[in-house]
Amino acid sequence: MDSLKARALLTEHRHYRYRGCAPVPASVADFPGQALGDPQLHIDAWGTVDRPDDDPEPQKKRIARERTAIAVCEACPVLAACRVYANSETPDGHLAEPDGIWGGQRSLDRHRALIKRRQADTTRPPAAVLAEARTDQKQALLAALARETDEELVAYRAGMDVRTANWHRSLLCGLLGLDKDTASREELLGAARRFGVLPERVRIRPDGRWPIAAAPNGDGSRQRRIAPGMPQQIVISGFQHMPRGRRPSPIPAEALAAARRSPCGPRLRLVVARPEQLPLPLPVAASIVLESAA
Ligand code: SF4
């Protein structure tokens, strides 16, 4: 679970204020920082306060302190939510709470459990590879890809040109262990989310009726491999994208109805946004949308 969401679930728990490691209100506390779960304990017993390197805590004292704190955790009303939060992972792959006792578990035990989880997941790329997928540009690209399904809008939102955006999409497929020739957009975003590269709070906009290529190439062959036999939208680079939403169709209603009744349906849709900017003469009138059945 996303660490921010897990933290919200913990702090918004209706019993959060009664947690064992909460400080007793100053007006009734016997000493500042007295822990609610045990009147003899200070809240520092959970070990979240840094100690100077030249003054390490004696081992016996540490073990006794940890045992007492864990005993309080075991009776804590928010134990489960606390454990989920502390063991959740941040977008850069670290434990949400790397230090101290949380949810009745020591930091060392929680790190060991994290390593075990990662070893059990054989499909998970190594940490160094995932770090490459977390560069600012790739994060921007993933956030844009989650929001948009059109390659030009993805590039626009990510703040780069279409070619660079598609190059990053191809690289991300490789980094996350996907085949860039057959991976769909949803598979790429799903892998990014599974490996903690894309935060869970980022909403993924659905593709629509047909899966979209994770990294399209110029002639559309990659899209054909992903969604064989389905209509393709050919996007001409350098053109402004058509406005979204419903537009009046320039094709007569009867012709449209006939095309929809056709057993194979439309096979190709060509969208021309600004024909006057085409480098070559275009054999169609301006602002025309063609739909043809192959
Ligand atoms: S489970 Fe332990 S660390 Fe977590 S809130 Fe309760 S007392 Fe504090």
Q: What do these coordinates show?
A:
- There is one protein chain.
- Helices cover 38% and strands 4% of the residues.
- The protein is mostly helical.
- Strand 1, helix 11 and strand 2 form a beta-alpha-beta unit.
- Helix 6 packs across helix 7 and helix 7 (151-158) packs across helix 8 (162-175).
- The longest helix is centred in the first third of the chain and has 16 residues, at 59-74.
- The chain is elongated.
- Iron/sulfur cluster binds next to helix 2 and helix 3.
Write a short abstract of this structure.
This protein has 11 helices and 3 strands; from the N terminus they run H-H-H-H-H-H-H-H-H-H-E-H-E-E.
Describe this protein with a few key phrases:
4% strand, 3 strands, elongated, binds iron/sulfur cluster, 294 residues, mainly alpha, Arc Repressor Mutant, subunit A, 3 domains
How many β strands by DSSP?
Answer: 3
Strand order of the largest sheet: 1-2-3
N-to-C SSE series? HHHHHHHHHHEHEE
If helices are DSSP runs of H or I spanning 4 or more residues, what is the number of helices?
Answer: 11
What is the straight-line distance between the termini?
46 Å
What radius of gyration results from the CA coordinates? 28 Å
Strand content: under 5%
- Biggest β-sheet description: 3 strands, mixed
Total number of distinct structural domains: 3
**Low-confidence runs:** 240-245, 286-294
Helix content: 25-40%
- Mean pLDDT metric: 81
